[in-house]
């Protein structure tokens, strides 16, 4: 273990370089490793894109010094952007559908951002429309729009992926991650394919989500409780490239809920539902590889635990399945 001996100058300097930890339920022959993104200062994987997108947009001049970012966000991206905006002298306004957790909205406000709520039934589409409308009303405002901004996957191509490949001496057999915007998986997959073209890539979504239709699978749309991943309208998730993905798997809310509890009680991970879905999908890839059903270039599977369960305690995530609000 190396110790970082110099004090950091800014909280932004502590983003990234998160730990990669073995998931012990995985087979010895094909271990699963999870990147613990709650170690970031805003406690999620989205700190990476908050910092990266703002720094790049400031550098290119797209975002003026002292300008405003307006973003439709389910929450973690808002927190990541708010952490970065606060330190970079940028004002932040977030448009959040009501369904998303109160904790995240409270944290965004604490970081100095303004939060505007849109009705749950209008979905992310309603939040996106409102964000563009707000940006037009303001001077100097930019909508980073994580759902279509190439800087989102680029942040993971530039940071998350090289950290993983470096930690495992490039011996990465498979990458497995849930897709919300798909920025995390696409950035990692593109890095994997460019540097080690045979890396196996699995996209994860909750049952009821429609990414699978992009691989011509006949799946049924339904509401789901797993937060932060999946889509009801894959056409609006422009970053997802079906060709960068070997398979798209679905995990039920019930299985994710049980895995969330198992990860806490057996492995000491206080992680949320999307991490649990990722864990189950990664364990399944590892088991199929160990059984000889799929060929991996290396005997390892890497996934991401995007955030912490503490952010969702008010939704009853550690109670019985029925009382989990989702
Ligand atoms: N898990 C959680 C908790 C998230 O907030 C997000 C982002 N929506 C994801 C997973 C998925 O990340 P991405 O948007 O990069 O696909």
UniProtKB/TrEMBL annotation:
SUPFAM superfamilies assigned: Tryptophan synthase beta subunit-like PLP-dependent enzymes (SSF53686)
Its ancestry begins with: Archaea, Methanobacteriati, Methanobacteriota, Stenosarchaea group, Halobacteria
Name of the protein in question: Cysteine synthase
| First-tier enzyme category under EC | transferase
Cross-referenced CDD domains: CBS_like
Q: Which GO terms describe its molecular function?
A: cysteine synthase activity
Instruction: List the GO biological process terms.
Output: cysteine biosynthetic process from serine
Please state every residue range assigned to the domain named Tryptophan synthase beta chain-like PALP: 12-307
> What keywords were assigned to this record?
Amino-acid biosynthesis, Cysteine biosynthesis, Pyridoxal phosphate, Transferase
**Keyword Amino-acid biosynthesis on this protein?**
yes
Family named by the database record: Belongs to the cysteine synthase/cystathionine beta-synthase family.
Question: Is Transferase given among the entry's keywords?
Answer: yes
Look up the signal peptide feature and give its range: none
* EC identifiers of the protein: 2.5.1.47
Name the cofactor(s) required for activity, per the record: pyridoxal 5'-phosphate
